Structures are given as structure tokens and as C-alpha cells.
Amino acid sequence: MKKAIALGCLLVLLFLSCSINQLQDPSSYLEDPKTWKGVFEGFWNGMNNNYVFWEIDSPEGQWDEIYKKYAPRFEEKGLVDFNDRETTKEAVLDLFEMVKGLHDGHYVLTVDTGDSISDISFMPSAYQRVVESEGLGSLTDREILGYFYDNYKVGPAWFIADYLNERFMPMGDGFPSIIDSTFGISRPYDICPSMGAAVNAFWSSDDLGNGLSESIDKSKLHFTTTLAAGKSRTMLDAYFKQWVLIFFPLEEDGYNLTCFAGITRQTVINGTQVPENVLYLSFSSFKFLTHMEDEHIKAFLELYQNAKRSDGTVGMIIDLRGNPGGYILDREILFADLVETNHQYSWDRIKLGGDNRLDYSPWLPSYLYASSNGEAKALAQKPIAVLTNSGSVSNSEHTAMLFKTFPKGVSIGGTTYGGYGALSQSYKEENAGIFNVGDIITLVYTPFCETKSLDGSVREGIGVPPNIAVEYDDADFLAGKDERLLSSFDYIKANI
Amino acid sequence: MGIQRIRRFWVAMVLILVCILPLSAFAERQWYAGFSGGYVYSMLETGTGYRENTAYVNGHGFSVSTHILYQINSHLGLESGMTYAARPYGWSHWNTYGEETERQRLVVDNYFLEFPLSLYLMFGNEAITATLSIGGYAGIWMASHQEGEINSFFYASDGHVINIPFDEWVQFSDVRDNRLDGGLLVRSGIVVETGGFNLFFRGSFQLSLTDLSKPYQLNLVSRYSHALVVEAGALVTLGGSR
Fold first, then answer.
1. What is the pLDDT of residues A17-52, one digit of tens each?
2. Torsional sign, CA A150, A152, A156, A158
3. Domains of chain A: total
4. Same domain, yes or no: A227 and A268
5. Is A480 contained in some domain?
6. Chain A with chain B: Cβ pairs closer than 8 A
7. ipTM entry
8. Contacts by residues A215-220 (CB-CB < 8 Å, ≥ 24 positions apart)
9. Closest to B49 (Cβ–Cβ): which among A22, A365, A422?
10. Which tens digits make up the pLDDT trace of B4-56?
11. Do A71 and A32 fall into the same domain?
């Protein structure tokens, strides 16, 4: 009997001695001297713990297969030596190859290659669109990645803009090409002598900005653009009986905010009847949050809010083509008064309760919060068209999903980009998302949050399909015939 | 790691049976049946690694059990039965990037149906007996409930942070969740015979050998749900040759 007790105690001690796997910080794999195997281990494990889309990107352990395939290849590469250009290129291409199939629409992998000019960034979603639109032909994946590596320009966005024909990317200064082509407004980029020093604000009520809100410091306005007296003003006045247009340079991130709101006249554009009193809204990105105290933005929002809450407004068009997204809170700033109670439009989840790939929170409802008193609730019952294309990303896609749940809300145009995730500053903030591997992989840009639509589908990397699909025609668009916009006027007219 | 532990668990169970079964040859047979209820101090064994802004917290649960005791002689018996136990734990994460704030909080209540089997040793007299049990248990992870709150990434338009609470039963994943439960068991207590009942009070330690996660990925962080149990119950004599 004593032996049995002793045996039991022995077994207990034996089992207690088993250890638990402890995760390492991705950067901790890069000990001196730095090796490519260390870079690989830090990256693979960092992704393993901090990437949020594993259920769709590794449903049967594909990420483990990648480890088994690439670990020996990085082992062979030895020490990180940027003077060895061939090995550096091969290592970076291996990293790109590991992630080229990911669904994450925001994902960007930025690697130091020893180039004195810049690190190199790879965006799998852009790569996938190139392959989709151009076809591989006789080129292998590796050869395409090699071409990309050899011809890299700063920033991954050019890669999309060069290969797609929807003219959806905001221009370098954040000016949506929609406003440019459809309404014939020249971009201030070429004509403003001191970019970043002046705000261009225009109201239908006055050529030179007189009659703006009294609080606006007019000394900061820049009036010497062609808009003030040129063709653009004439066109805008022909379409809209009241409008406001702001070009707002945001110096700190090199991105500008352009926003336009107008109330239509009864008119005809390209043979299409435009109903009176449709509120048209377009903005280059969701960047209002950090500029809410700006006088111009305040004045813009005042006109927009008044129009939204007016009984005379018959419907609304929200033009999100080329809008890459931005602050989540902007959705509340722009639309919260349309609802009286919190309005669910999708589901979100994050990594929670553990660090394994499938340790998720429950799917939680994502709302448009009714933080005001529903002053514009009447408009929510009227026809609302959200214009989208493949350049509508992130918050634009959330907004499209939101309005599709309204009684007469639809999206019109093309399928969106497919990057719904929300981003934080670092994995340290929300338990997943952005990380780096020392100073070699300087940034893995990835969300901490996954979204699915109310019908239960996760459309990351796929995009929101429009209710009313309208083919894009580049020649027509450049000639000023915007079929997608015209279709939205048709929809509003038919549903008033 | 998980597979290794399971293999060791079965080896241990076989060893225990090999030790016990020959003893029944000189049995002074007596059967008892009973029930008990208890408090569970649930301890999750896992690792947070470099997540210095993450913490696990032990939880407080309960157990209800039925017991069958087969007494072989005045010092030795075999005990089995069925236990339904809640072994909860907590988890929280706080932001350390900027201002330190709690961002996510979670309490997981895991419920298990277990079938223990142990060697039951008795020392004492007719009125009061000290007991020691050593054995194992096998069971099923029956259900999981999670309750918690997520802060910070939903906002109202006036800028205040929205807290999203949740309180729901977990839908098990065939890929992620290992619902087979098993481990080792050590119990110690006293039995008091009064009015035809054998009242018992005892403490137990359950060492889980089964990971709550299936080995579905490389570098898996295992989670073992151990428990300290304090319980009270009663046994009645069913009959035998005593």
C-alpha cells in the first residue's frame, strides 16, 4: 500500500514538471549577430500571435506548412548582410511569398533591405489584384515579386493605381478623382503656391468666401484658384443650388482632406433627370475627427447637418469612391443623427483570452450609435445611395454596410476593396495587430479586429458587393459622364 | 506536450489498476453510495510569454458529485462516481502603448462531467476515519460560458468610450477545443459515521493532463485546468459481506 502511495506521488511530481510554451517578443529572435533565421522566426511567430484573420487564412494549418517550407530556407541564408544583395533579395522575396495569399486588405509588410533611400513595402491585396487583372502569363509568382522588388517605388499604393483602371485612388494630395472628373473642379495641388499653408474653402453663396461663418479667419483662406471664377464654379452652380467645398491640407500625415456637400437643383446631367433637393456628399477620407475644431470643417458640417435634417431633402448620395477610410468615430460624426436608437449593421471580433491562432472574442455587434436625438431620422427613411468602387476601403466599406441596412439604403457602383479591419498603434494596445521584428521588419501593418456582415459572411479580401452594379467605363468617366453617379440619381428619383 | 501528457495519463491509470486489482482477491466486500457538493478553486496553468500586459486569474467554481465506494477491506477501497464541476478562470488585457487602461476583460466558466476512479485508503475506527484517495479522472468538457467586456474601439460621437459587454455560451470549435478531459486526483479527508450515514469532508487536488486546446498549430500555448476542491457529502451503505 505504501508503495502505491509512493507511486502516486511520483507520478504527480513527474507530470508537474511539464513546462508550458512561452511566447517570445518577435524582436527578441533577432539577437546579435542577426540571422535571417531569426528574422523568419520573429516574423512567423509575430504573425502567429498577432494576425487576426487566421480562421480564413489558415483553416487547415496552412501557416504551419509555411513554417515547415521556409524555416530551412532562412536557415541556409545565414547572417543578415545587406552587402550581399542577392541573398537579401531572396530573403525578402521569401517573406513576401509567405504572405502573398493573405486576405487582409490592410496588410503591409515593410522590410529594411539596406537600401539607403527607403524600406520596401509589400501589400498582398495589391499583388493579388495585379495577378487578377493582368494574369500571370508565363511569369511565375516569384518572377512577379522579383519585378516588384526591382522596380519598387516608395509606398505600396502606386502598385494598385498603376494596375487598375477605376481611377479610384485619391491623388497624392488626397483629392478624389471623382470630384475632378465629374464636376470638373481643378485640383488645387497645381495652383496653390503654399501647400499646407492655406485652406481652400468655397461656398455657393459667395465667390471669394464672403458670407462664410463669421468665426472663420479669412486670412488663412487661399482664393487664387481657378475655382473662384472659373468653369468649376459655373458647373457646380448649375448642379447644386447650395454647396460647399473644402480643400484642407493636413500636413502632419501628408494627406489632405477634401470634402464637398451640395443640394441639387432640378436639372439634367448627361440625359439623366436630377431630382431637386438631393443631398450629395463626398469626402476624400474619414479625417474629420482630428479637425473638428477647425472653423472650415465646422462650417462645412453645419451646412451638411442642416441639409440632412431638412424636411425638404428627398434623399442622400454618399460618394465613397476612392475613399480609403479613416477614423471610426467619423462615422458617428457624420451619421449618428440618422438614428434614434443604436443601429447594428455588422459584427466584429478581436483576439481574446489567449494567444493561439483561434483564440477569439465572441462576435460582437457593431453599431451606429445614437448619441444625438435622431434629428435627421426622417432622412433615414428616404432613399440613400452609397457610391462605391474598388477604391472604397475600410471605413468606407463599413459605411456601405451600414446604409445597406437602412430601409431604402443601397450601394451602387462596384465591389469595394475588402479591407474592413480596424487598426491600433500596436499589438500592445488591443492584444493583436501591428508589430515589428527589430529593425529588419520595420512594420507589419495589420488590423486587430475582424468584421462580418449581418448575413454572417466574412468578406475580408472580397469586398462589399453593390446592390446595383454599374460597370465602370474609363473613357466615359474621363469625358465627364459618370454612369455610377447617374444611376444613383435614378435610384433616388425612383424611390422618393 | 498535450499528447505526451495524455499518454502519461493512461499509463498512470493502468498502473493504478494493476496495483489495485490483485487486492480484491482478499476482499471484505461492502458497497456504499452517496453524494456531495463542494467549492472549487480553479487554477489555469498556461503562459502569457511576452504579453506583459495580459494576466490570467484563478476562479471560483463548484462541484456536485455522486459517489460509489467499493470497500475491499477495513483499510482499502475503490471509489468512483460522477462529478459535474465548474472550473472558471479570468483573463484581462490592458493597454501599455500609451495611457495604461484595461481594454478587455473576460471570465470563462468551463463545465466538466468527470468520472473519477481512485484507490481509497482508510485509517481509523468505527466512528471516525481518515481517508486518502489517489487516482485519476476522465471526462468531457461539457460547456463553456464567457462573460466580459471590451473597451476602446467603439466610440459614440461625443467621444466617450463605449464598453461592449458580452455574456454568452461558447460554441465549441472542432479544430480548436479539446473536449476530452482527464487527469490525476489526490484526496484527503475524514468520514464520520452517524445515524446510518457516513458524512465526509475532504479536500482534493485535480491535476489536469489534458490541454483545453487541440494541438492544431505549432508553438501552441497550452492551457491546463487544475482544481483544488473542498467538499462535503454523505455515503450510505448499500450492502455487502461485511
1. 457 888 999 999 998 899 999 999 999 999 999 999
2. negative
3. 2
4. yes
5. yes
6. 178
7. 0.87
8. A215/A295, A215/A298, A215/A299, A216/A295, A216/A296, A216/A299, A217/A295
9. A22
10. 665 666 666 666 555 555 554 444 689 999 999 999 999 999 999 999 889 99
11. yes
Interface of B with A in 110-129 (CB under 8 A): 119, 121
Q: Are residues A285 and A327 in the same domain?
A: yes
Question: Phi, psi (5° rounding) for residue B8?
Answer: -65, -35
Cβ-based neighbours of A185, under 8 Å, separated by 6 or more: A179, A227, A232, A235, A236, A245
pLDDT tens, residue by residue, A229-281:
455 667 777 888 888 877 776 555 555 677 888 899 998 888 889 999 999 99
How wide is the angle at C-alpha A37 spanned by C-alphas A436 and B1, nearest 5°? 90
Q: Domain of A152? A: 26-163
Query: β-strands B30-45, B224-240: how paired?
Result: antiparallel
One domain for residues A149 and A202: no
CB atoms within 10 A of CB A150: 8
State the Cα–Cα distance between residues A166 and A133, nearest whole angstrom.
Answer: 12
Give A419-474 pLDDT, tens digit per residue: 999 998 888 888 899 999 999 999 999 999 999 999 999 999 999 999 999 988 87
Same domain (yes/no): A261, A386: yes
Domain that holds residue B103: 2-20+32-122+132-240
In whole angstroms, give the CA distance from residue B191 to residue B231: 12
pLDDT tens figures, A310-332: 999 999 999 998 888 888 889 98
Q: Give B122-156 as a DSSP string.
A: EEE-SSEEEEEEEEEEEEEEEEEEEEEEE-SS-B-
Residue B25 lies in a domain: no
User: Is the pLDDT reported for residue A210 higher than 50?
Assistant: no
Per DSSP, what are the bridge partners of residue B84?
B64, B113
Kindly state the helix (H) or strand (E) to which residue A402 belongs, with its residue range.
helix A395-404
Flag whether B27 is in a domain: no
Q: Pick the closest to residue A380 from A407, A412, A399, A402 (CA basis).
A: A407
Tell whether A488 is covered by a domain. Answer: yes
B26 within some domain:
no
Q: A137 with A222, same domain? A: no
Q: Which pLDDT belongs to residue A224?
A: 36
- Closest chain A residue to the Cα of B165, Cα to Cα: A364
Residues of chain A in contact with residue B16, where contact means CB-CB under 8 angstroms, are 4, 8
